[in-house]
Amino acid sequence: MSSGNEVAGTGRQAEEVFRLCGSEKTLIGQGLRAEVARGAIDSLAERVRGFFSDRQGGPRLVMGSLPFDRSRADYLFQPEAVAMGSRSEAGKAATLPDAVHCTIRPVPAPSAYRDAVAACLEMIAASAGDAEPLTKVVLSRSLELASSHAFDAGNLIRALGRDPSVTVFSTLLPAEADAPHPLLVGATPELLVSRKGAEVVSYPLAGSARRYGDPGADRRSAAVLEGSEKDRREHQAVVDAVFDALSPYCSELTAPDGTTLRPTASMWHLGTRIVGRLKDTETPVAELAGALHPTPAVCGLPRERAAGVIGQLEGYDRGFYAGAVGWADEKGDGEWYVSIRSARLAGRHATLYAGAGIVAGSDPAGETDETSAKFVALLSALGIDEHGRPLREHAA
Ligand SMILES: C=C(O[C@H]1C=CC=C(C(=O)O)[C@@H]1O)C(=O)O
């Protein structure tokens, strides 16, 4: 099996092909040097290992994204060069694009999403007596944007970077036919897994509430989330799944701070930081990502059954939304973030995605509102509301 393709004559030598901008550092990939052989997640670690053993030149790391569906092909590449930046640069240069002429088509329509949530709740209830009942399904919806001007990823990245609590990312997606590579751009609050030497960290989130400009309303929203039995259950499902997936690889695995409130600029979340030590330091980050993805923060429980319900009820292709974006180096270190709060940019078209975890006790209207709240970060970085209208502060 070939470990990948050289990329010749693409004119992408100096272009930014990847950016991952966390609270401490920014990793930038410039130029597309080679693509890792594409495949499903089960063979990811083997393909990454093969890539490094077959090629000597270039930076000793690969970067890119994994799709939501475990059986679909990922897209990882080696850049020509790697640069490190700082977060403050990203925030300072923020300018908002003129997105006045932008139309938005919700897919599915919010009313159809509510119906899908109601149907999902019936499936959860009907499965209660099964040997492995369906206990959680994350259902998403999308917004299809068509703008008079090509979307500017650089502007979007800078605007998203104003929220210091999220990891801003941008990565090339595989090219389709003769069209240029689309991009996946987003601002995720959720770490799927990182590995540095023997230390492994995962920071799952699940359970959400909208944030408000009014401090009293904002505090009340956080307090309701903290006290919500439904959200605690939704969150615990993810924490248990992360422990189950990582414990075979770890000699120690703990959640030192327990479950805490994790704010972003627009959302409150329940989050649990999980830290482990590898039994075998030869275990690469790609193998850990393969064991974890997709967690019940983006799929559900049991995993296969929930993925089937998503395919049946969502009615569109998630592609690289709710997958993972990140990097892996030759030593097996790396970082992979859950690719939520993301958009696929292709010229004048963009598709934004947001999902919500459905468990017994979920309310269809409440979950629809939660997805609307999750769109706010990307929409406000684009300078528009959910109907494509310019936000008041940016309107002429
Ligand atoms: C699936 C998404 O969020 C996940 C991450 C945090 C909280 C979530 C929730 O409360 O439902 C979701 O599990 C999304 O933003 O598209």
Task: Provide tags for this entry.
single chain, 396 residues, alpha+beta, Anthranilate synthase, 18-stranded antiparallel beta sheet, three-stranded antiparallel beta sheet, 28% helix, globular, binds ligand ISC
Q: What is the CATH superfamily?
A: Anthranilate synthase
- CATH architecture classification: 4-Layer Sandwich
First-residue to last-residue Cα separation: 57 Å
Unreliable residue runs: 92-96
Q: What is the number of E strands?
A: 21
Question: Roughly how much helix do the residues carry, as a percent range?
Answer: 25-40%
| Computed CA radius of gyration, to the nearest angstrom | 20 Å
- In round numbers, the mean pLDDT is 93
Structural class: alpha+beta
CATH class category label? Alpha Beta
Cofactors, ions, other ligands: ligand ISC
CATH topology: Anthranilate synthase
By DSSP (H or I, 4+ residues per run), the number of helices equals 9
Report the β-strand fraction as a percent range: 25-35%
Order of helices and strands: EEEHEEHEHEHEEEEEHHEEEEHEHEEEEH
Largest sheet: 18 strands, antiparallel
Number of domains as seen in the coordinates: 1
* Envelope shape: globular
